[in-house]
Amino acid sequence: MTRGLLDTLKNPTKIQLVVPEDGARVRLDRFLANELPAYSRARLQQLIRAGFVTLNGAAARPRDLIRDGDEIELHEPPLEKIDNQPEAIPLEILFEDGDLVVINKPAGLVVHPGAGHREHTLVNALLNHCPTLSGIGGKERPGIVHRLDKETSGCIVSAKNDDAHRGLSLQFAARTVEKIYLALVAGKLRRNAGVIEEKIARHPVDRQRMRVTSSRGRAAMTEYRVVRSSGEMSLIECRLHSGRTHQIRVHLHHLGHPVLGDKIYARKFANKFPRQMLHAWKLGFRHPRTGEWKNFQAPLPNDFAEAMRTTGL
Length: 313
Prior knowledge:
Elements: H1 3-10, E1 14-18, H2 28-35, H3 41-49, E2 53-55, E3 58-59, E4 71-75, E5 93-96, E6 100-105, H4 122-129, E7 153-159, H5 162-174, E8 178-186, E9 193-197, E10 199-202, E11 210-213, E12 221-229, E13 233-240, H6 247-255, E14 278-286, E15 293-297, H7 302-310
């Protein structure tokens, strides 16, 4: 565990970091995102721009390049009042206690408010269900530790307090969380199992897309296993060893077997399925307070099961 992570746990409102030699010549926001996994990179950029982060005692910008020996200080501002409105959206709860809640998210539900989605999100539903949620993610993302795409169904965990949020975030950053997905993909794979280990970066032209790259992308690893195949289509199990944006969708597209129904990476098949056929099937982690290992499984939704039936799987 790095000094930054230890400081986060001991004093979450004030964090002091000294850049090591191997951290030099990296953007400030990227360095902080790597050191402080309890904060999303977007949240850190907000804090830097708002003046809550200093570099060698002076105001900084997210794109500033750091050097070895630089001193960085982050002051967590007082929690912002959550102004998202609670909504009585039904939730399928797989587990809940005083620290966290695990949901089987339906396809079509956006996780948190953002551009074009100011309401009718999982956050709105959680605010109606829970009296309190963690505030580390800022007022737009209370309780949100990780995300699923709008059209992806399945297991997602939310934190009810900041201690639980930090404990879960550390596990996601350390890649000790078990994340297993089911995907319906085009074609029959040549191998029944394998590992895709390719860097992922945002597409230089189409900003909605990600792509595999050999240079400036972020390391990503997806382990897969064919469950069954009908010749033209396959059901595969994917185990994530990292958590990049669109990771499974991008890696499977790169492999030549895109997720069926994916409007971005498999437009040829988009109109034949109700949504992208990707389901966050299993989720496992240590409870941030008790240390007990917890396993959860989200049953297949009806549209996924129907797609399997109609394709002969």
